Amino acid sequence: RKLDIKDFGEIILKDYESCLERFFDLESGAVLESERDNGIPKFLYTEITGYAILDFIFLHSITGNNEYIERAKKSAEWIKKQAIDPCGGVKTRYFFQKDSETRLIETSFHGRRIYSFDTAVCLKSFVALYVVTNDESYLELSKKMGNFLVTKMVDGSGKVFPIYDANNGHPDLLFALSPSFPPRCILLSPPWQPSRHLPPPLSAPLSG
User: Which of 20, 96, 171, 207 is the most buried (most CB within 10 A)?
Assistant: First the structure.
């Protein structure tokens, strides 16, 4: 029979769900990236874990499966306990036993280089999780990240420093001010809402 949009949606969804496990560290709930061809060792990736929280919320909205909210919470817990720096931003990549290597200092947890974009992604994911769970702890952490961005990373003209050196307590001045569009686009866009993200044919929970 002819494949309609709902059938197509179910096929795509099931294929996506079947591949989820390969992208995550099951113990922590963080997104795991394998060793790269250029020798960069495997790492847990904070920014992409933030995106994953949004994906889990979306999957819950179209399936009705509460497991996805629990997975979003687990990913958020890892960010909360491991990735959020005392300064309020998020550390970028955790390289396991190799995290303290000098060659990885620009992106490692040990190096404490805080990226505006990564922090903004996590801020938005925590706001979204607050919207769907009403858990005030997610809102409080969102405020902490937002306060870091507006007090440490934005200059008087509204431009955003891309990197903050948390070890020295100031933006990394080796980098010029970046155009502010990407992080501001994330920060100023509305919180995640199911009604804004669901195409009409998939607005009801899918079977299977």
Answer: 171
pLDDT at 2: 58
| Chain centroid offset of residue 132 CA | 16
- pLDDT of residue 208 exceeding 60, the answer is no
Helices (H) and strands (E) in the chain, counts: 7, 6
Q: Are 123 and 52 in contact (CB under 8 A)?
A: no
Nearest to 151 by CA among 87, 103, 96: 87
Based on the number of CB atoms within 10 Å of its own CB, is 178 exposed (0-12), middle (13-18) or buried (19 or more)?
middle
Q: Is residue 71 within 8 Å of residue 136, measured between CB atoms?
A: no
Q: If you write DSSP's letter for every residue of 2-38 in order, what string do you get?
A: ---HHHHHHHHHHHHHHHGGGGB-TTT--EEEPPPTT
Q: What are phi and psi of 22, to 5 degrees?
A: -70, -15
In the predicted structure, residue 207 carries a pLDDT above the cut 60: no
Helix, strand, coil abundance in the chain, percent, nearest 5: 55, 10, 35
Min mean pLDDT across 73-77, 126-130, 146-150, 202-206 is at 202-206
Query: What string of DSSP letters covers 155-194?
Result: -TTS-B-SEEETTTTEE-TTSPPBPSHHHHHHHHSPPP-H
Q: Is 150 exposed, middle or buried (0-12, 13-18, 19+ CB in 10 A)?
A: exposed
